[in-house]
């Protein structure tokens, strides 16, 4: 048997509402998200066939195997900690009694949370920066092979088209042959061809057979890696433009000299993560549902605050976090002595039952 989203239900030991609805930050357009934990059958664990994660195609439902979940908790993974914090609260849909008892034996919160929450916030900021760059800069120009082709002439690289014009030649008057010692170097011969050096579709260098008496004209360098990189940039931009959610991109007139956009959803995550980290350091608890800062986070999500002002607030809050964790009563690492032995015994017990 293979575990998948269609047959995972009997093995689920924790099932919770997740995402914006768990945080109390949902809007009418918000999706229904669910996260939880499952216990794989012991034979699947012993044979190495148990998946660590089961999810649907849209990632709206995600369930982590108990062993992997404990490992994430040991590392103070923010997502795992917040899922565990939903246990016994309004987000909980189902929780097996044995799971509640097992998790209640350990204290997972530690000063490691400073690093994991900061790292998560930094990832969100990188996404914001990438979106901002795409939204404010001109779309990358499509890669044309001709722009990456040069001819070696008197120790210098001359653009292929310029060189051809200086020789009174056109693209269809010359053919190329790859030089064996370098995949980016091609010998150029005077020989007529129907489609030219770059072939019919202009997407690859054509290397037809060369007549034995064809005149060698020179050597061409094609910057293949630079050409491929530009193609990837164009493809990434097209994908971003197709998939982006315009409702999450807010124009910020406070940007220097030009207007830009920032992703309000990711910015909201940044502040939610920083505020949660502060609460861990000062209160020793995780408040999944955002109550105290709900109005502020909704303002951020609605794009009511200029990006420059938000970034100043982010830097200030980040600077305050480390001293708070250093002064906190939190242990250096999670207090989970014996968890792996206990988990092994739990698996055996539940299997025998």
Amount of beta strand: 15-25%
Q: Report helical residue fraction.
A: 40-55%
User: Strand sequence of the main sheet, in spatial order?
Assistant: 3-4-2-1-5
Provide the gyration radius in Å: 29 Å
Mean pLDDT: 90
Order of helices and strands: EHEHEEHHEHHEEHEEEHEEHHHH
Number of strands: 12
Distance between the termini: 20 Å
Unreliable residue stretches = 252-260
Q: Please outline the major beta sheet.
A: 5 strands, mixed
Helix/strand class: alpha+beta
Shape: elongated
Account of the 3D structure:
By secondary structure, this protein is of the alpha+beta class. The protein has 3 domains: 1-107 and 334-353, no CATH class; 109-138 and 247-330, no CATH class; 145-228, no CATH class. It contains 12 helices and 12 strands. It has helices spanning 20-23, 42-46, 66-74, 78-85, 97-103, 112-136, 160-166, 224-243, 264-283, 294-301, 307-326, 339-352; strands at 12-18, 33-38, 53-55, 61-65, 92-95, 149-153, 156-159, 174-178, 185-190, 215-222, 249-252, 260-263. The strands form 3 sheets. The chain has a 5-stranded mixed sheet with strand order 3-4-2-1-5. The protein has a 5-stranded antiparallel sheet with strand order 7-6-10-9-8. A two-stranded antiparallel sheet has the order 11-12. The chain is elongated. Mean pLDDT is 90; it is low at 252-260.
């Amino acid at each position: 048997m293979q575990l998948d989203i269609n047959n995972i239900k009997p093995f689920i030991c924790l099932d919770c509402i997740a995402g914006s609805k768990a945080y109390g930050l949902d809007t009418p357009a918000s999706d229904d998200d669910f996260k939880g934990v499952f216990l794989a059958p012991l034979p699947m664990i012993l044979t190495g066939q148990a998946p660590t994660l089961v999810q649907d195609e849209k990632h709206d439902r995600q369930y982590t195997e108990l062993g992997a979940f404990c490992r994430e908790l040991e590392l103070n993974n923010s997502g795992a900690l917040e899922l565990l914090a939903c246990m016994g609260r309004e987000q909980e849909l189902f929780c097996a009694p044995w799971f509640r008892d097992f998790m209640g034996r350990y204290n997972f919160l530690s000063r490691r949370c400073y690093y994991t929450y900061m790292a998560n916030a930094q990832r969100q900021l990188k996404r914001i920066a990438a979106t901002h760059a795409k939204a404010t800069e001109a779309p990358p120009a499509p890669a044309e092979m001709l722009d990456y082709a040069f001819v070696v002439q008197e120790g210098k690289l001359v653009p292929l088209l310029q060189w051809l014009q200086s020789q009174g030649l056109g693209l269809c008057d010359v053919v190329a042959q790859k030089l064996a010692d370098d995949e980016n170097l091609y010998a150029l011969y005077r020989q007529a061809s129907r489609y030219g050096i770059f072939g019919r579709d202009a997407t690859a260098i054509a290397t037809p057979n060369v007549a034995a008496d064809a005149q060698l004209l020179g050597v061409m360098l094609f910057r293949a890696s630079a050409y491929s990189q530009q193609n990837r940039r164009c493809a990434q931009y097209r994908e971003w433009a197709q998939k982006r959610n315009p409702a999450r991109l807010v124009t910020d007139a406070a940007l220097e000299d030009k207007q830009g956009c920032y992703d309000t959803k990711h910015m909201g995550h940044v502040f939610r993560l920083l505020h949660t980290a502060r609460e861990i350091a000062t209160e020793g608890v995780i408040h999944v549902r955002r109550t105290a800062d709900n109005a502020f986070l909704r303002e951020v999500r609605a794009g009511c605050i200029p990006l420059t002002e938000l970034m100043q607030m982010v830097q200030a809050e980040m600077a305050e976090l480390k001293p708070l964790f250093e002064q906190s009563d939190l242990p250096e690492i999670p207090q989970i002595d014996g968890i792996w032995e206990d988990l092994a015994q739990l698996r055996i017990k539940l299997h025998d039952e």
